[in-house]
Amino acid sequence: MLPRRHALSLLAAPFLLPRMAGAQAPWAPTRPISLVVPFPPGGPTDLAARVIQQGMSSALGQPVVVENRPGATGAIGSRHVAQQPADGHTLLVAASGTLTINPVVMRNPGYDVEKDFAPVTLVMTAPNMVVVNPAIPATNVAELVAWMKTVPGGPAYASSGVGSSEQLGMELFKLLTQTEALPVPFAGGPAAATSVIQNTVPMAVLNAATVGAHVREGRLRGIAICGPNRFPMLPDVRTMAEQGLPEHVSTSWTGIVAPAATPAPVLARLNEVIVAALRTPEVTERLARVGFAVDATSREALGKLINDDLTRWRRVVREARIETN
């Protein structure tokens, strides 16, 4: 007869086997990972990819390469990632416009966000902001609306480009306040900001990271932050919600997505590694210096953000009768 302790060990063994068999090591890449940025080097989306590059490589044991594939306001690089094997080795580092505005304003961007991509994590956010030239007699939303209604046909507003989150943010403002304003497109946010500073165009909705320093130094006046919270660089500028327009949400953000069929364990591991890389003090401080807040999240939170923005911008494009291209 077996000693009692041996018999108990044998009885317990069958119950341990399934648990041991089910335990799996976290997914690990077998070759370098490509972070595809659908814009040229040097912009905020490119910066987002590069600040997590080393942290990802150290955690996953493979080189992480930033690959810039610019063109068609992000559509070319996005299309490329949608067509890659869904194995975790190719990811898209995308601006909000790439994922939630291109599909709304382009007739055929060449990818379907809801079918072709799986969310990995949000990376960083910066709200848009309503700004005016200091000569405009308005310091808040109510005063701005009152002034806009005195201008026959509505004032002009500077747009950072047709179909940008800033342009759609202004169109949403017009819908909510029942005002008129005429878009004047510029080649990007800095050029649009310059036009408002020079008062060639009196107002705009622009990214707070782009215009924050101008507002702080008095070249522009901040009317309202278009995000849920005040902007740390400009704590005295109230949000839209604080001024009676909680429906007005317009933010620029960067997120990471993978090809849609990527297995859940791969997505979970990528989320874990990237979120850890983003939450290091060095990364947080580096992004804060250029006006962005780290906003690393769950996969589900990014998926909800994408769906909410798609719903919002589809409504704006439809009701403002913005022509798609």
From TrEMBL:
Fetch the InterPro entries from UniProt. BUG (IPR005064)
Query: Known Pfam families for this protein?
Result: TctC
Q: Which family does it belong to?
A: Belongs to the UPF0065 (bug) family.
Return the protein name. Tripartite tricarboxylate transporter substrate binding protein
- The signal peptide stretch is 1-23
Cite the CDD domains for this sequence.
PBP2_Bug_TTT
UniProt entry keywords in alphabetical sequence: Signal
Asked if the Swiss-Prot or TrEMBL record annotates the protein with the keyword Transferase, the reply is no
